[in-house]
Amino acid sequence: QLRLVESGGGLVQPGGSLRLSCAGSGGTFDYYAIGWFRQAPGKEREGISCIFANGETTKYADSVQGRFTISRDNAKSMVYLQMDSLSPEDTAVYYCAARLWVATLTGSEYDYWGQGTQVTVST
User: 2: how many CB neighbours lie within 10 A of its CB?
Assistant: First the structure.
């Protein structure tokens, strides 16, 4: 059973940066594609970025394209989400999720989820 734990959230000022981490354990991490999702209060969950198991292909939602960068280190069973030029609209709980091999931005296609980490962008 793959277990995922997010970290790195917090309070940041508009225009600032944060790096989220997703740590995997309990499974063969190299087999899993990882997606990052977020959910703001009163809004639907949004798929924002994902990376294939081999790390060679990434995808981004239009809302974060050019500002966020996803990467992974399979040797450490880690996936990262570098978030730059943050705005209040990025305030949400951020989740990482895993599914075998092929990454998508559709949350219902993922099998394993972390507990989430809060990101708040505010002055």
Answer: 19
